[in-house]
Design goal:
Keywords: Membrane, Transmembrane, Transmembrane helix. The chain is an all-alpha fold and 58 residues long. Helices cover 83% and strands 0% of the residues.
Length: 58
């Protein structure tokens, strides 16, 4: 399924915004430091996959 460039950019922006919001909230929950870095890295895995799938053309 082909997705237009405008839609790909919008979906990437939305996913990046959601990731930043979740990352900030996790910072409040786990505190700043190494645990926050680990939580952010673990959260980046599914969001990175979603963004990569958005840009892959079938």
């Amino acid at each position: 399924m082909k997705i237009s460039l405008k839609r790909k950019i919008a979906m990437t922006a939305v996913l990046a915004g959601i990731y930043l919001g979740v990352s900030i909230v996790s910072g409040f929950i786990v505190g700043n430091g190494l645990l926050h870095v680990v939580a952010g890295a673990l959260l980046a895995i599914p969001f990175g996959w979603l963004i990569r799938e958005t840009w892959s053309d079938d």
